């Protein structure tokens, strides 16, 4: 019986270590984060404000119209005196103006890696049955605002949020 329990424990810890090995670290100029080995990192982004994008594997399902991703925007806020709360509110106001169908699902602050973080979750209908759901983290450090956004189709959000959270929660600023 002791051998079976030992074997099961060894198997469990081996699987836990293996799961950790399925992620790799990206070191940017002022940050680092971990993302799955089967995801793709790119600096070629759809928007010049987005510095890095991490893309899920392409799905071969013909009905899947959206590729889940995490992207990072870094904004110089040296000309503004913004608290984390003020910056988060400003970002949320911009979303509501630019995307009238946006629905805020939650808004809070939390701590990730000893950093105070603004957190919003929202969704929007972009037409043609394209409903997307977003989880955004806002971090103010010095004269910069870091915005991490996990983007998913609403239908696949629950399937991808564990990976999205792991990527978002791994974010660290360089010292």
Topology:
Blueprint: H1 2-21, E1 23-27, E2 31-36, E3 40-42, E4 50-55, E5 69-76, H2 84-98, E6 103-112, E7 115-125, E8 131-141, E9 144-153, H3 157-169, E10 172-173
Antiparallel strand pairs: 1-2, 2-10, 3-4, 4-5, 5-9, 6-7, 7-8, 8-9
Please characterize this protein's 3D structure.
- The protein has three helices and ten strands.
- The chain has about 180 residues and is an alpha+beta fold.
- The protein has one domain: Protein Transport Mog1p, Chain A (3-Layer(aba) Sandwich).
- The protein has a seven-stranded antiparallel beta sheet, sandwiched between helices.
- The longest helix is centred in the first third of the chain and has 20 residues.
- About 10% of the residues have low confidence.
């Amino acid at each position: 019986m002791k051998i079976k329990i030992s074997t099961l424990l060894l198997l469990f810890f081996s699987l836990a270590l293996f799961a950790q090995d399925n992620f790799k670290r990206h070191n940017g100029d002022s940050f680092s984060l971990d993302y799955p080995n089967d995801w793709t990192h790119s600096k070629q982004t759809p928007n010049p404000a987005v510095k890095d994008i991490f893309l899920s594997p392409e799905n071969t399902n013909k009905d899947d119209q959206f590729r889940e991703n995490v992207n990072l925007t870094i904004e110089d806020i040296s000309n503004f005196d913004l608290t984390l709360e003020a910056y988060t509110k400003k970002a949320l106001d911009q979303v509501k103006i630019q995307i009238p169908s946006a629905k805020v699902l939650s808004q809070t602050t939390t701590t990730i890696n000893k950093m105070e973080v603004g957190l919003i979750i929202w969704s929007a209908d972009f037409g043609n049955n394209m409903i997307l759901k977003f989880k955004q983290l806002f971090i103010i450090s010095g004269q910069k605002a870091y915005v991490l956004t996990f983007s998913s189709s609403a239908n696949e959000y629950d399937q991808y949020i564990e990976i999205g959270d792991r990527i978002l929660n791994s974010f660290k600023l360089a010292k």
